[in-house]
Design brief:
It contains twelve helices and 27 strands. By secondary structure, it is α+β, with helices and mostly antiparallel strands. It has four domains: about 110 residues, Trypsin-like serine proteases (Thrombin, subunit H, Beta Barrel); about 100 residues, Trypsin-like serine proteases (Thrombin, subunit H, Beta Barrel), CATH 2.40.10; about 100 residues, PDZ domain (Pdz3 Domain, Roll), CATH 2.30.42.10; about 100 residues, PDZ domain (Pdz3 Domain, Roll), CATH 2.30.42.10. The chain has a seven-stranded antiparallel sheet. The chain has a six-stranded antiparallel beta barrel with strand order 8-9-10-13-12-11. Strands 15, 16, 17, 18, 19 and 20 form a six-stranded antiparallel sheet that branches. Strand 6 and strand 7 form a beta hairpin.
């Protein structure tokens, strides 16, 4: 009898211990129903930019690669002659994805999918094709709205990206490499990511497989609702490596509404240049931890200037929303229309102060001009590298390199293949010591395209030489 009771007790203890673990194991999700319901509303988008219709001197011109090399016969057989040989530059054809938001033919996609397109062709899931009209497009949010002439089309419902959590299952439907109606799945990796081109978008980061042609397609939650628009990937070779980024549906919906009503998107402007609050800065400024956005500059007669915000202030909150990092500020400000009254909480000399601001309008033309100026500055840099000066705080974090400039972006394929990475400190260029930006600019004047250049690099406290041959076309 004692033995029976002993066995029963062991069984009960085992059940009690194992039951909670079993309850947490739910298995992998099934996406078949989601694909059946959402797939019909996802479209393939093919865009064409017409080429030059007059060949030089009427001479036959062979198709060429982007670097000027003639296309081999092998590729001609597989891809065909892009245009009549009497023509000059051939038509350029691209592809992307999108989804139907309204049954009368309104479709959302990316700005970069349809940018500079002369013709936009939409193919539905049932393979019907239509030429689309561009309603409006916004580069800063990478959102475009197009329309086809049809009724009673399948649509997708908008979800709530604010409720997304890291670890949640999501799926993408689109046309990677022009393979239509493809579905991939993964989880939300993080939220609130940013990049320099779309600083007003707090991107959703996922590990969903996204490739060329997925751009503009929907990111869906498990209820089949759109929570994001697939936009870009971070990749060393152009393909998916596990880092994909989507535009939150709230940002897209706001842009689409304005594009539909006015043809453009308006954003609020605070008028400050902000940067990161490092550990050293936080200690020096009397903050408990690195938090907020450091005000480096205030534009004269801007909303911030009129309110009394000064360089050296640390913005802790914007309209009641706390800022963990500096890059959270631009999306918060840009989400408000010009004329919005907002409260800005800052830390100044160890004390918190509140300022009431009335936002100005972000001038789209000036923003585009600034981007063009940055691109022009990069084009004059033969190395294909964007570099910045190093602050005292950054120098300490990097291990106190002597002199140098820090690499903020690598545009050159040759530099990337050689091993140059953002965050590297350039100490020497061809035996010339680089003490700062001035030395770097002078060194650029002596470089020649097609000649190898040697860089002495500081990385993680170690130095090494990296050599590669810059090409003129990489800087154009």
């Amino acid at each position: 009898m004692k033995r029976v009771l002993h066995v029963v007790l062991i069984a009960l203890v085992t059940l009690a211990v194992s039951q909670p673990v079993t309850a947490r194991v739910t298995g992998l999700p099934d996406f078949t129903e989601l694909m059946d319901e959402a797939g019909p509303a996802v479209v393939n988008i093919r865009v064409t930019q017409y080429g030059n219709r007059a060949g030089e001197g009427g001479q036959e011109q062979s198709p060429r690669y982007h670097d000027g090399e003639e296309m081999p016969d092998f590729f001609r057989r597989f891809f065909g002659q892009p245009n009549d040989p009497r023509f000059g530059r051939p038509d350029r054809v691209g592809a992307g994805s999108g989804f139907i938001m309204e049954a009368d033919g309104y479709i959302i996609t990316n700005h970069h999918v349809i940018e500079d397109a002369d013709q936009i062709i939409v193919r539905l899931a049932d393979r019907r094709e239509y030429e689309a009209e561009l309603i409006g497009s916004d580069e800063l949010s990478d959102i475009a709205l197009i329309k086809i002439d049809e009724e009673n089309l399948p649509t997708l419902e908008f979800g709530d990206s604010d409720r997304l959590k890291a670890g949640e299952w999501v799926a993408a439907i689109g046309s990677p490499f022009n393979f239509e109606q493809s579905i991939t799945a993964g989880i939300v990796s993080a939220k609130g990511r940013s990049n320099a081109a779309q600083q007003y978008v707090p991107f959703i980061q996922t590990d969903v497989a996204i490739n060329q042609g997925n751009s503009g397609g929907p990111l869906l939650n498990m209820d089949g609702e759109v929570v994001g628009i697939n936009s870009w990937i971070l990749s060393s070779g152009g393909g998916y490596i596990g880092l994909s980024f989507s535009i939150p549906i709230e940002v897209a919906a706001s842009a689409v509404q304005q594009l539909r009503e006015t043809g453009s998107v308006q954003r609020g402007l605070l008028g400050v240049v902000v940067g990161a609050v490092t550990r050293e800065l936080a200690e020096a400024l009397g903050l408990e931890r690195p938090i907020g956005a450091m005000v480096n500059e205030v534009s004269p007669d801007s909303a911030a200037d009129r309110a009394g915000i000064m360089p050296g202030d640390v913005i802790l909150e914007f309209n009641g929303t706390e800022l963990e990092t500096w890059n959270e500020l631009p999306p918060l400000v840009g989400a408000n229309p010009p004329g919005t009254e907002a409260e800005v909480l800052v830390s100044r000399n160890g004390e918190t102060r509140s300022f009431d601001v009335v936002l100005d309008a972000l001038p789209a033309g000036e923003t585009e001009s600034a981007m063009e100026e940055q691109a022009a500055a990069r084009s004059r840099n033969l190395l294909g590298l964007d570099v910045e000066s190093i602050s005292a705080a950054e120098r300490g974090e990097l291990g106190d390199p002597e002199g140098g400039v820090i690499v903020s972006n690598v545009d050159s394929d040759a530099a990337w293949r050689a091993g140059v990475r953002p965050g590297d400190v350039i100490l020497m260029i061809n035996n010339r010591v680089i003490g700062g930006i001035g030395d770097f600019d002078e060194a650029m004047e002596d470089l020649e395209a097609g000649k190898a250049v040697a860089l002495r690099i500081w990385r993680n406290g170690n130095t090494a030489f990296i050599a590669y041959t810059p090409r003129e076309e990489e800087a154009d």
